[in-house]
Structures are given as structure tokens and as C-alpha cells.
Amino acid sequence: MTELTKLTISEIRAKLADKEFTALELTEAYLSAIQTANEKLNAYITVTADKAREMAKASDMRLMQGGARPLEGVPLGIKDLFATEGVHTQACSHILDAFKPRYESTVTTNLWADGAVMLGKLNMDEFAMGSSNETSYYGPVVNPWREEGGNKDLVPGGSSGGSAAAVAAWLCAGATATDTGGSIRQPAAFTATVGIKPTYGRCSRWGIVAFASSLDQAGPIARDVRDAAILLKSMASVDPKDTTSIDIPVPDYEAAIGQSVKGLKIGIPKEYRVEGMPAEIEALWHKGIEWMRDAGAEIVDISLPHTKYALPAYYIVAPAEASSNLARYDGVRYGLRVPGRDITEMYENSRAAGFGREVKRRIMIGTYVLSAGYYDAYYLRAQRVRTLIKRDFEQAFEAGVDAILTPATPSAAFGIADQEMNADPVKMYLNDIFTVTVNMAGLPGIAVPAGLDSRGLPLGLQLIGRAFDEETLFRTAHIIEQAAGKFEPKRWW
Amino acid sequence: MSVDIDTVKRVARLARIAVDEEDASRMTGELNAILGFVEQLNEVDVTGVEPMTSVIPTTMKMRVDEVTDGSKAEDIVANAPQTEEHFFLVPKVVE
């Protein structure tokens, strides 16, 4: 029965329709896999077994009576950032202690309406602030991947580390995730899974705990490109409850898979060749270029001159927005309250006890750059630089480029409690150097597994597209997937 | 620009986060590392460049001005640490 958990969503869809097994059997297989693995991987922070069985039974009814929906009976994991009615929703923070929303996020509402089954809530960096899933109040997630012959625990990346680890370790068929600076694509690259951050405005942000509102976007992490397309189709919608939700119909992303890339122009930005990047990543990038060329795409060198300023601009814009969004955690309306002598001390004590170190650091930076006298020098300047970053991309696309190919991350997965990363916050931030530009410009980006390094750890490539042209990303990522093959961790857990 | 420990304490007060001497001193180092990193933005010529307000050009949507929601006092206070009859309870704020 354990093999059921190895099926992709497209396989599940076909086999459930053929009555090879029931949705309940599939859900039970996942629940038992979680029970065995979770103590070691810590991917789930809460498992909703009863709810999962109930939803699976309802799917079986549908499958029996006809009228199966697009994700009928597909067991999914949900990042703890998504509000799920009556179920643990804490953004993996202590400050949202015991919070159980009375409402459901739009993205998860869409998934349940399409017949998906909720297995539970997934671990993540606290408030999605981190690149290693080590800032979670619930402890780090362990990457199912290990070095060849080694037994050192590695990080799964972050902030959607639980989502990526659960998908890679066969603990859910697919997962929801969110990406503010690389939080879908970097963990996907670290775990040999596929992750897409769609265009800003494609998925509703309603009911997703806010980190940096002008950058946050939801997207799926999946086992392959097709599954990512199937999931995004369900997650995306036009939502009157989110004013930044864009009024464009959601296309059938799956239909783009398998389409030829002949004649497509793929841009290779020279600024992504950064100092200190491992030779293996450079080599993998070249392989990706060859694969695209072999498939008939035209390769063109491009320049995105403001690339190096994206990360510093991000570390002004994102903390500024976070400091404002996180002002709501005051010990009054929900979550943790720590008493004080007066109301101000109650606020200060609650926030000191409730927020972790990385979250406090970002609130402090954000408060500082927005404070009187510094706003122009920091925040306004960063937003002007952001305009320039976006303009770089616009010029490339205007010149006829259809998609841009880059490495997904500057390294493979690193060890948990890495001393260098812990000693220097900026070092950790550099993980997002290739992904953050995409958030700053609001564009879609997909990370697709492309190979293993000499230690046997996964590496990914990223494709960046025009706004609302996710279809070209699925089309091109599929070429890489077919050329590179799929990668699975050895089960040690 | 760099910050000293007194600035860090002032910012912590603005952010309503209690810090002790040790926290403030650690944060001073961390904040200065980050502020040092973002300093490179000063190299960029931003003359005449409009600050970004929205990544996707869009006009704010309008909706009909009608009541579509409400009467959920129970739901709204359900997660509060202390409530009484649909009110949030806070420490006394006026003498």
C-alpha cells in the first residue's frame, strides 16, 4: 500500500477514475506514511486525520456517483500560513498561540471546492521569514535528502520548508506554499521538487497571513511540472475579496505541457553569474541552456543591470511592510498575551515573548527605515530601485525574450545550524539572490530540478516569465524535466 | 549609516518590543550588518525614477456599497485572550 504515496497527482486522477483504489485508501496510505516519518522530518505541525478521512469519503461518493472534480481525492498538505477554518493556523509563530480562524483562505477554499483532501498543516519559517525553515517556533524541518553516504541533517530551504520536505518525502501528493523572496523556489530546488511562484495577483492573498503584502504570492510545490500546473489551476482565481487579485481568467495550464518550444527566445542574463558560485551550478546552467537549444529554442544573451540591487532593496521593502503588517499582533485580539503593568508594557511583553529572533530583527529594520527622517533615504530609494529592476525585465521582454533561464539558488542544501549562516544574517539572505528579483518585479518564476551535485544533492534551475504568462513557464520547465529526469531521495526516515 | 544602542532601544520602543540590555546590544550588531549591506543602494542613480507603488498596473476595483457581511461578534472575539460580552479586555488605559 505504501506505493500509493509515490503516485503523482495526474496518476492519482487516472487511477481513481479507473477505481484501482479508493480515495480513502489513498488518504490512509498518506496518514500512515506521515505517522512513520514525521518524528524525524518534522514537516507537519498538525495532522487533521479525521477531517482527511471525512473529505476522502466524500470524494469516494463523488467518484462512485460520477461528477468527480479536478482534484477529487488528492491528499494535500497546507502551509501553516493559510487560514483553515477551525484548524491550527499560526504562521509557525508563538504569538499566534492557539489561533484557530473562523474562516477559510480563498486558495484553500478553491482546493476543497475542487475535491482535494487536507492532510494537515505544514511547518515553515516563522511568518515566512527565513531560508532554512529554522526560524519556526515548532523547530526545524529536516530535508529528506542527505549527502551520498552521509547522515548529517540538512535544511529543506525556506520558508516553505515543510511543504517541500513533505512533497519530496511522499507525505502529501502536493502542497500549498508562499513566496515573498524565494520561499517556494529555493526549497523546491533544495528537495528536487517543482515550485512555481505565479504572477503577483494571480492567487488571492485573502486569508493568508501577511508578511510583505506587495511581494507575497501563493503557489504550489509538487512532484513534477504537470502536477504543479494542475494545482495552480485550482489555487488561482479572481477574488473580489483581494483588491490586488487581477481580473484575468485562469487558463488551463496543463494544456501548455508538451507544447513545442521551437522558436521561443530564452534569455540568459549575465548578471546571474555571481562571484563565488560553485562551478557545478554554472555547469548545470550550461546544461539547461543546451537542453533548451536542443529542443529548438533560441538562446540570447541579455543584461539585467540592476540585479545586484534587488536583494538589498528587498531587505528594506520587505521588513518595512512586515513591521506594518505585524503591528496587529498586540495580545488583544488573538494569540499570546503576556501581562504588564500597563497596556504598553503588555504589548511590549507579548511581542517580546511571541516573536522569534529573526522576526524581531525584521520588525526592527522595518520600523527603523520607516521612521521619521529615514523614510526617504531608505524606503523611497528602495522603491525607486525596484522600478529600475522591473524596467530591466520589461526591456528584455520587449526585445522579444519569452522566458529567462537562471540557476535557482547559489548553493545546494546546507546543514542545520550552519555556523556561518547563523553568525551572519546577510549570509542567510544571500540564498534568495536569484529568486528575489522576480518578487520585486511581480513576475512568475518556476524552479525545476535539473541535476544532483557531486555529493548527490539536488540543484534546480529557474525560469522567469512575462506577467501572467505562467503557461510558457510550464512549457519550458517541462523541457528541462524531460531532459534532466526526475530525482528521488533515498528513504532513511 | 549605522545605529547605536540607544537608537536600537528607541526603535524597539516604537515597535513595541521589550528588549533588555543584552538583546539591544546583540540587535545593534545585527542591524548594522543589514544596514551596511543595503548601503550599496546609494550607488544607484535614481534621479527622475518614480518609486514603485504597484508591480502590476491596475486600477483599484470598486464594489457596490452594500452590506454583505456582519453579525459575527462571536467569531470576531473567539480567539481573543480575554473578552467579556463581545468586548476585548485590555489593561486600564485611562485614570
In short:
The complex is a heterodimer of chains A (493) and B (95). Chain A is 39% helix and 13% strand.
What is the CATH topology descriptor of the domain at 5-43 in chain B?
Histone, subunit A
The count of strands of chain B amounts to 2
Output the radius of gyration of chain B: 23 Å
Q: What would you report as the Rg of chain A, rounded to the nearest angstrom?
A: 21 Å
Shape of chain B: flat
Low confidence ranges of chain A: none
CATH architecture of the domain at 5-43 in chain B: Orthogonal Bundle
* The top level CATH class name of the domain at 2-261 and 416-484 in chain A: Alpha Beta
- Structural class determined from secondary elements of chain A: alpha/beta
Please count the helical segments of chain B.
3
Helix content of chain B: 25-40%
Mean pLDDT of chain B: 93
Strand content of chain A: 5-15%
Strand tally of chain A, please? 11
Q: Helix share of residues of chain A?
A: 25-40%
Largest sheet of chain B: 2 strands, antiparallel
CATH topology term of the domain at 2-261 and 416-484 in chain A: Amidase signature (AS) enzymes
SSE topology string of chain B: HHHEE
Which term fits the overall shape of chain A? globular
Key words describing this protein structure:
heterodimer; A: 493 residues; alpha/beta; Amidase signature (AS) enzymes; eleven-stranded mixed beta sheet; 39% helix; B: 95 residues; mainly alpha; Histone, subunit A; two-stranded antiparallel ribbon; 3 helices; 4% strand; flat; Amidase_dom (chain A); protein biosynthesis (chain A)
